[in-house]
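stage 2 :: seqdesign
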C-alpha cells in the first residue's frame, strides 16, 4: 500500500447546507483508488474522504429530501445536463473513485446516456436511485445498448442464473412506472452444428 493519500472534504454540494448543529456524524472512507486499477495492478493510490454515516441510505434521502428535490427541480430547468455533468466531474472525483465509476469509459458512457436518454427519464432514474442508493445501485442491468437515439437496458443471465431481489425491483419500476425500454437476455450454450 502506498503512503500517499488524497483527502477531499468538499465534493458533496449538500454538505454545505447544514448548520453546525444539524451536521450529521461523518465517517472517513478509505480504499485503494479504482483509477488505473486492474486485476494485476491492485496497489493503487489510497483515497480517503468524509461521508455522512448514513450516506446512500433511505434515511439519508429522507434527511436530505428538500435539498434533493431542489436539486432535481433545478436540473429539470437546465437545458443541457451534459454541461452540468462535465462541471461536476472534477469535484466528484473521490466519490466516483469510491463507487468504481472514475474511469474514462464510465465518463464517456455517462455522456452518451445523457445525450440519448430523455432528460425527464434521466431525472426519474436519478431520483429512484438516490432514494435508497446502496440497495438500488446493484439492481441496474448489465448493459446500456444504443443505436442512434434508441436505447435499452439489458440484463444478461446464464441459463441457471436468476434475477436478484434488487434487479426484480428495478425491472418492476422500469416497466410499470417509467416505461424504460429494457429486457432480460438468457445465454444458452452453443450447440456444435458441424
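stage 2 :: out
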Amino acid at each position: 500500500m502506498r503512503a500517499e493519500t488524497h483527502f477531499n472534504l468538499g465534493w458533496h454540494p449538500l454538505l454545505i447546507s447544514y448548520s453546525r448543529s444539524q451536521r450529521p456524524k461523518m465517517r472517513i472512507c478509505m480504499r485503494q483508488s479504482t483509477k488505473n486499477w486492474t486485476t494485476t495492478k491492485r496497489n493503487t493510490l489510497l483515497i480517503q474522504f468524509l461521508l455522512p454515516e448514513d450516506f446512500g441510505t433511505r434515511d439519508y434521502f429522507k434527511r436530505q429530501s428538500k435539498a434533493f428535490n431542489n436539486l432535481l427541480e433545478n436540473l429539470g430547468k437546465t437545458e443541457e445536463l451534459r454541461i452540468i455533468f462535465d462541471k461536476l466531474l472534477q469535484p466528484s472525483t473521490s466519490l466516483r473513485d469510491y463507487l468504481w465509476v472514475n474511469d474514462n469509459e464510465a465518463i464517456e458512457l455517462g455522456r452518451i446516456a445523457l445525450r440519448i436518454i430523455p432528460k425527464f427519464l434521466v431525472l426519474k432514474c436519478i431520483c429512484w436511485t438516490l432514494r435508497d442508493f446502496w440497495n438500488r445501485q446493484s439492481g441496474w442491468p448489465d448493459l446500456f445498448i444504443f443505436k442512434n437515439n434508441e436505447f435499452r437496458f439489458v440484463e444478461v443471465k446464464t441459463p441457471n442464473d436468476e434475477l436478484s431481489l434488487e434487479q426484480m425491483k428495478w425491472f418492476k419500476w422500469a416497466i410499470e412506472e417509467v416505461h424504460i425500454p429494457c429486457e432480460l437476455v438468457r445465454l444458452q450454450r452453443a450447440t456444435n452444428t458441424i
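stage 3 :: structure notes
- Residues 140-194 form one domain.
- The first helix runs from residue 58 to 63.
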